[in-house]
# Entry
Amino acid sequence: MAVDSAVKAFGGRAVLKAASFWAREGQITTLLGRNGSGKTTLLRIAVGEVRAETGAVRFLSKVYERPRLAVLARGGLYYLEERAHLPRTFKVKTQLEMIRRAHGGRSLDEVAARLGLDGLLDKRDYELSGGESKRAALAGAVIRAPMCLLADEPFAGLAPKDQETIGRVLRELAAEGVAIVTTGHDVSPLLRTADEVIWCVAGTTHVLGRPEEARAHPQFVREYLGWHDRIVGRRSAGDE
Amino acid sequence: MRLPPWKYVGVLAWRTLIVWLALHVMIRAMGGPLVYTAQGMLFALAVILVVVLADAERRRERRFLGNLGVSRAGMGAVVVGADLVLEGLLGIFAGGLPL
# Structure
């Protein structure tokens, strides 16, 4: 999966001028950037929810002028939106069964154990906490075992323990060969799980390399990480 | 085009029935006909499609079904099918078979 040189403006304001990202097999790529830098817009262009003015979306060597989530999903893409929740229409178990029946994949019990969802499968989404709800949504992706997973802000608003669970599952998926793209502002878990960092700034994207290279990039530290890296980043690096 | 799983087909058909019923009751209360002309039927179908698909969007079902490979067209096909069945049944009971 790749989005190449995407251009997009909202109400005359250019959000993306020539932004690109790609997902590589077995790797987690994380898009970082300030609010409004176009991270979510890039993912939404990739799944066809936003139409880029120019630029190309490539998936499995095919170029899509007007990509559609349903078409890409049949080829092996899974998209977890910013506030990923399963619909409230049916119980968690029923909806995860639907994913397994549509695409095959892992057994529900195995996935529930991996994500700590035992005892929650018979509940509906509105009966779950924020962390449980996000883990239930991620369970859909784990059952699907997609070729490519786009996860918008997978760690947002979660307790450290839930962030750890989700980070571990994302790493396990990557180890199985899934190409993963994440975004967000939860710098510690995002950098801890990522293999490659792409910085979204001024409407374009810069490949910063591995997380430790990103942390050593003076402009990225000055303009994005700010005090966070000096306090949290160094401390967690010390822990490791 | 892939259709939604059967449980979602049932849910979409049920919602179509509710909107269809509400629309028919409202138009009847305003002095309109019980059985519509082809043009009226198309207009009612457009309204039902918009309402049911917007409701599915609000409930985050569209992205869930999208990840299952089901497009808006697949969801729309269920709504159109349910609406045609309802209009057909109403035509048979209220207007007699068009023979």
In short: Residues 221 and 230 of chain A are 9 Å apart (CA to CA). Strands of chain A lie at 2-10, 13-22, 28-32, 54-59, 62-64, 77-80, 148-151, 179-183, 196-201, 204-209. The longest strand of chain A covers residues 13-22. DSSP finds ten helices and ten strands in chain A.
